[in-house]
Amino acid sequence: MPEGRRIAPISRDTMAFVLAGGRGSRLLELTDRRAKPAVYFGGKSRIIDFALSNAINSGIRRIGVATQYKAHSLIRHLQRGWNFLRPERNESFDILPASQLVSEEWYAGTADAVYQNLGIIEDYAPHYIVILAGDHVYKMDYEIMLQQHVDTGADVTIGCLEVPRMEAVAFGVMHVDGDDRITDFLEKPADPPSIPGRPDTALASMGIYVFETNFLMDQLRRDAADPHSSRDFGKDIVPHIVKHGNAYAHYFSRSVVRSAAESEVYWRDVGTADAYWQANIDLTDVVPPLDIYDRDWPIWTYAEITPPAKFVHDEEGRRGQAFSSLISGDCIISGGTLRKSLLFTGVRQRSYSYLDHAVVLPYCHVGRGARIHHAIIDRGVHIPDGLVIGEDPELDAQRFRRTSNGVCLVTKEMIDRLNYR
Length: 421
Prior knowledge:
Elements: E1 14-19, E2 40-41, E3 45-46, H1 48-57, E4 62-67, H2 72-81, E5 92-97, H3 110-115, H4 118-124, E6 128-133, E7 137-138, H5 142-152, E8 156-164, E9 172-176, E10 182-187, E11 201-212, H6 213-224, H7 233-244, E12 247-251, E13 267-268, H8 273-282, E14 310-312, E15 314-315, E16 318-319, E17 321-323, E18 326-327, E19 332-334, E20 337-339, E21 342-343, E22 348-349, E23 354-360, E24 365-366, E25 371-377, E26 382-383, E27 388-389, H9 393-399, E28 401-402, E29 408-410, H10 412-416
Parallel strand pairs: 1-4, 1-6, 4-5, 8-12, 14-19, 17-20, 18-21, 19-22, 20-23, 21-23, 22-24, 23-25, 24-26, 25-27, 25-29
Antiparallel strand pairs: 2-3, 6-11, 7-13, 8-11, 9-10, 15-16, 28-29
Domain Glucose-1-phosphate adenylyltransferase/Bifunctional protein GlmU-like C-terminal hexapeptide: 307-410
GO molecular function: ATP binding; glucose-1-phosphate adenylyltransferase activity
Catalytic activity: alpha-D-glucose 1-phosphate + ATP + H(+) = ADP-alpha-D-glucose + diphosphate
């Protein structure tokens, strides 16, 4: 087993492979036109920017992104915002759509997405590979996890979270011994086992895996030859290694990146409309749980060239103003008011309108006198003058998508059905 810390960061000899092909159907109409990793977040970013920024900030300079479901929006974002890596500096950034490279099938599962790109990975010859999900919001230093992988001599190291036991039904759940070696792994169990001595808590997989590249290639080829495999890391690859090899857990709390302003270990699966809305609204807190202003660990993204946000009119009852809100570039608040809301790029809010706990995606138009409460407005929606959203639950449910927590999701098609001119 290797001993001691290497002089050079392990990340220099590592490739990050981001799985970004999923639809994310629990986000409802937000993923009708885009994959979940391409969904907007935090005013100017996309969800995938967090995994990619973690890789860059951790020192990883070889990255591949596997795409599949409705990938155009995602691919366009990656081409615009992530094309700064340079091959002459031994850096690379590959967008890897499902293209039937080694078979006549699309990506059959998470493991198959990597298997079908083995030739590309071999060309770069990284010593280690980090497999990442592209649809979670968090800040993490992967170098720390890589160091643990080397120090333990693990076949696979799995990033893990401590979560309330019954929330673990949506995750892979693991048992560990006193040395953090994984002794059992269950994918999305109906009755998740608890951590010993902590009956209300389970140890859940984050979908982050570290392997030596040659070992992973052997495992993927073995799995591809198994006609009974579902070609999935959580269902097939990881359980096999747990049973026949050495699998170790890496606690997210050991490598989470926090600024002085962040008091909690922050990780969010924003995979439902309610969770997505809440995570965005949380950013409007005076001291939010996620510090997106941390210059020591920036969230890189495609930065559009936009004019500053603008607030106009200063008359009684018609004053452009915002309270506890985030306003992106190219927004014009023209005699309207917003509270605890987040506006993405290019939003126009007309006079006498009112937004409260609203998440408004890019290039929306809020009409004169409209009132919007506890809502997500999809990109490019034009809210008609005087329309009220979020005050009448029964009417909202007839017109829009209303969640069990009372959040309204509004799309262009829903507005078109109202027959406004």
